Amino acid sequence: MSVKPSLAKTTRGGGAGWRLSCLQSSNNDTERRSCLNGNLRGGRKSEREREKDGGGGAEQEDCAPALRDGFPKESDFEVVTGETVSLKNLYLSCDPYMRSRMTKHEDPSYVSDFTPGSAIVGYGVVRVVHSGKPNIADGDLFWGMTGWEEYTLIENPESLFKIKYNDLPLSYYTGLLGMPGFTAAVGFHEICSPQKGEYVFVSAASGAVGQLVGQFAKLMGCYVVGSAGSDEKVELLKNKLGFEEAFNYKKETDLKAALKRYFPEGIDIYFETSAGRCLTPASIICSITTKRIRMQGFLVFDHFHKYPEFEDRVAQYVREGKIFYLEDIAEGLESAPAALIGLFSGRNVGKQLVAVSRE
Ligand SMILES: NC(=O)c1ccc[n+]([C@@H]2O[C@H](COP(=O)([O-])OP(=O)(O)OC[C@H]3O[C@@H](n4cnc5c(N)ncnc54)[C@H](OP(=O)(O)O)[C@@H]3O)[C@@H](O)[C@H]2O)c1
User: Fold this and answer.
1) Which CATH superfamily is domain 85-175+332-355 in?
2) How far, in Å, is the centroid of ligand 1 from the Cα of 345?
3) Structure pTM?
4) What confidence tens digit (pLDDT) does each residue in 72-85 have?
5) Any idea which UniProt keywords this protein has (predicted)?
6) Which fold does the domain 179-300 belong to in CATH?
């Protein structure tokens, strides 16, 4: 199953052409195997042919002659093997930043916009089905950018993270041991520089990032209060995730008064993880200035070089029962759109992901 067209443009190898790709949409084993063994790529014109045609560099121009006589010839195709890695997608991650990728940006954003008509790209957990790269073996497990489809063919596996602990639930690599978990660790430990005994407030505290910020803070010996958008989430924060206190921000008419109630002596660290309306009242913004408080944003991508140390530490926490992770798992690729949309109204309870194949 796929959202990708079967005839796609490619600029791989420095030349433009058409690539026939049936892997993503095929349920037929023979068809899939033939795709795994190589791609069919549209033939490229020689420099002389290009000059004869007026030297146009446009991709459409480049591949037009194959069909100019009405039918393609065998020589219009080149069988390419050994350059790609084919992946079976096991779990896909639904993340708030994907909303931004659905918007057309005039100025480039920190991530590229989605391409209409192509499979959605996002974080996921994958198993290698066939590798054309010497350092990647068939069967290896990775997490990283992949497609919202059953199988994905990639040319840059260098961007993927090899999964070290496949004895832990693989779905954790979309959350706890993946990008959101690492975001919580970097944001809390590196950006907030916490001290034992400090007072920590986490908004949207039951989400993929927030639930871990609270638990990391507890492990540091901090006093932690979280806010969430339903009574069910509030109960989970207090009874499952170990927060000292939690409140339903939708039931509070005066957020400043609520914070005063839970932190009579003030807040040392406020970790904002709300995917929607920011809970920061204007009065807090004012205090930031007068009390010379540091406010800092960050992008997790800038810290990925520190990921291996994080993976070891957090895997150990899981084994020792020191971390609990709430997941909200939608079953099947067909449930992915609803799962993603649900993020933006807080329908998810814990990390939202999609199980494409549990193998
Ligand atoms: N800087 C980075 O590198 C980086 C990396 C990862 C994530 N992030 C950001 O961190 C935040 C949390 O991410 P996450 O993965 O934990 O997301 P998440 O699991 O979806 O949690 C976010 C929570 O936000 C709340 N929410 C949703 N819509 C809302 C709305 N319209 N108004 C108020 N609250 C709303 C929901 O909780 P309630 O029901 O409790 O309201 C939801 O559970 C997001 O803003 C994300 O973009 C940043």
Assistant:
1) Medium-chain alcohol dehydrogenases, catalytic domain (3.90.180.10)
2) 10
3) 0.80
4) 888 878 877 667 89
5) Oxidoreductase
6) Rossmann fold (3.40.50)
